[in-house]
Amino acid sequence: MRTPDPRTTDPTDQHRLRMALGRFATGVAVVTARSRSGMPVGMTVNSFTSVSLDPPLVLFCASRRSSLYPVFAAADAFGVNILRESQIAESRRFASRGFDRFATLRPRTGRTGVPLLPRALATLECVEPRRLPAGDHDVLIGRVAAIEADPDEIDQPLVYYAGGYRSLNTDFEWWSAWRE
């Protein structure tokens, strides 16, 4: 009889599943929208990715248990604010509950009406969101209608790995060589 490998676990063990998924490094973004009354809302996500270049589509995943879920489910547009390494405080702020996350920030309003965070590494404004149920979350897919990203600005992105914020600690000289 074969002894089970202790590193292999039942995939329904949520603690082990979360640990295994945490081994995939991700960027960190704050998705934003406006409530029907016009209030800005936002939440930190690491479940953001590109879907298609033609048409330009991106997605993020939102828990249906989130207090902000109804706002995003009803929104006509959402913003994606890709955070820089120096924006850990913003990431934590928008991951917290129970207070106005925009209280001391001065967001600007994008072309689609969504609030955009100051100093984000890049922003995308998305329209025509579609919701697809997936377990206890919904996948929200939006068509990119506006982009802000300075092609000459190279800065470290905020990275999340194994339950914490990490640094790439990368020398970006390769970027200059690649662009030439």
TrEMBL record:
Q: Give the UniProt record's GO annotations in the biological process aspect.
A: pyrimidine nucleobase catabolic process
Question: Does Iron-sulfur count among this protein's keywords?
Answer: no
Xref: InterPro entries:
Flavin_Rdtase-like_dom, NADH-dep_flavin_reductase, Split_barrel_FMN-bd
Provide the GO MF annotations for this entry: FMN binding; riboflavin reductase (NADPH) activity
Q: Which Pfam families match?
A: Flavin_Reduct
Q: Which UniProt keywords apply?
A: Oxidoreductase
* Record bears the keyword Oxidoreductase: yes
Name the domain of life. Bacteria
Q: Can you give the residue ranges of the Flavin reductase like domain?
A: 21-167
PANTHER family in the cross-refs: FLAVIN REDUCTASE, FMN REDUCTASE (NADH) RUTF
| Name this protein carries in UniProt | FMN reductase
Name the source organism: Actinomadura rubrobrunea
